[in-house]
Amino acid sequence: MLLRLLLIICIHIPVVCCCQQLIMLNDSANVSIRGMSVVNDNIVWVSGSNGMTGRSVDGGNTWQWKQVKGFEKNDFRDIEAFDAVTAVIMSIGDPAYILKTNDGGNTWKVVFEDKRKGMFLDAMEFWNEQSGIVIGDPVEGKIFIARTFDGGDTWQHLPVENYPAAKDGEAFFAASGTNVRALSLSEAVFVSGGQYSRFFMRDEKTMLPVLQGSQTTGANSIAVFNNKNRKAAKQMVVVGGDFTADTLAVKNAALSADGGKTWVEPQTPPHGYRSCVEYISRSRLITCGTSGVDVSEDGGKNWKLISKESFHVCRKAKNGKAVFLAGKGGRIAQLLWQ
Prior knowledge:
The chain has strands at 20-26, 33-38, 44-48, 52-56, 64-67, 76-81, 87-91, 96-101, 109-114, 121-126, 132-139, 142-148, 156-157, 170-171, 180-182, 188-191, 193-194, 198-201, 204-207, 217-224, 236-242, 253-256, 276-279, 285-289, 292-296, 304-307, 313-316, 323-326, 332-337. The chain has 338 residues and is mainly β. β2 and β3 form a beta hairpin.
């Protein structure tokens, strides 16, 4: 049943400052959701396991679930939607696929395919409705990158010599589609994990002060606060940790105020491993993971736990104020900040 369950989780503090409410919208779909794209306050798309996609055009009150024909076993870990009928989805593993729909998810066309052994796409990011990027785990020691300039209809590999080199044991997490983000009108930044966890910007690579050293540790997500003029952003937050120890609140986040040149740990970190982080405003953020949801009101310096519910991804509307979360079992919620 697609019920709007008013499951309200508030923070009560002696000195009253605010109250965050998580409103459960759906929890009955056979899909683990990791991809989410919020076009505006009404149009929301999600994607995930079992070849499933979901779409709402009424702010999450009702959902249309569809399984992509011929891709019933694929895991679509990221999605980018442009309106109520147009979206691009990305499948992990090999063969690596990107598909696009122009009819609300009724039919999908394969727009990218790579059958090389070891291919594993991790995340997509679009600067606008035409220009986008996808990144993937290293192949033969080189981080995979492809670009589109026609709304995802076609994708072009970067020249091999331009692929960034990865360290041994360094890769990416296809946890929420947010380990790559737009930095400006034409540039993107991304973060890695595993044996090493680094921040990549152009030819610069900076080690992050987060857990690293094993296949399950490192940065999972980066959020970039972009001003309306879309000049190169300075304010960034990274989250991650160890997904096999998801309540461990040690070295699971980092902040930068100088465009990624230097990073510091927060004063009060999120309360466990986190797979996604998102700016709501310059000072307000939300982060989520399998052990709960945290919010910050001071730019990520201090985090407060508002729920122990498991979510993989949290996204704010590209054109609006709505904030949604999603996770396993088709769980979808909306954050209300009062």
